[in-house]
Amino acid sequence: MTERSAGSYLVTTPEQMERLGQRAAGGLNPGLLVFLSGELGSGKTTWVRGVLRGLHYDGPVKSPTYTLLEPYYLQDFAVYHFDLYRIESANEVEFLGLRDYLDSAGVCLIEWPERAQALLPEPDCRIEFLHDDNGRRLIVDCLSDAGEVLCVSMG
Ligand SMILES: Nc1ncnc2c1ncn2[C@@H]1O[C@H](COP(=O)(O)OP(=O)(O)OP(=O)(O)O)[C@@H](O)[C@H]1O
Ligand SMILES: [Mg+2]
Fold first, then answer.
1. How far apart are CA 44 and CA 132, in angstroms?
2. What is the distance in A from the centroid of ligand 2 to the CA of 54?
3. Quick one: which of 11, 28, 59 has its CA closest to 148?
4. CB of 92 closer than 8 Å to CB of 65
5. Is 22 in the pocket of ligand 1 (CB under 6 A)?
6. pLDDT tens, residue by residue, 117-147
7. Does ligand 1 have an atom closer than 6 angstroms to the CB of 137?
8. Distance 85 CA to ligand 2 centre (A)
9. What is the 137 CA–ligand 2 centroid distance (Å)?
10. What is the DSSP string of 117-136?
11. Was domain 8-154 assigned CATH 3.40.50.1970?
């Protein structure tokens, strides 16, 4: 699929990263698939925490590094937060039931999608998190109409 539009954000603090996620929450629609790429510690989970705060979830938001998935059952839809960093084989992805989550009406936010690239469809939106001298830089690519809605919402 061709890229529709792209945005770039300089984010200097974790608080600002959460606020950006919070804004993105307003642009989520059921079934949305978002890839969160970028090296270790680049702010992906912090952004997801902001998304969940934006959806009025006040509980803990832990990194799914070991569990691979943290599900959040919210008022309007579920949010499935994946971290595939530790995935070592397609069998593990199968065991996780990834396909069922992708086919569901939930929103899937996937850290380290590269680990299961062959098994994942094209996302609605891809966000690249980069370390920057002044904090982090986000490069956002929208790949579908639903992805555009998310991008517009981030501002
Ligand atoms: N814009 C920012 N500027 C500075 N520090 C930040 C920024 N955003 C997040 N951080 C901090 O970076 C650290 C790592 O963030 P986070 O856990 O969100 O990264 P991650 O990309 O999910 O890493 P991993 O790939 O290991 O899951 C945290 O301490 C977080 O507070
Ligand atoms: Mg993380």
1. 14
2. 18
3. 28
4. no
5. no
6. 989 999 999 999 999 999 999 999 999 999 9
7. no
8. 9
9. 16
10. GGGSPPPSEEEEEEEETTEE
11. no
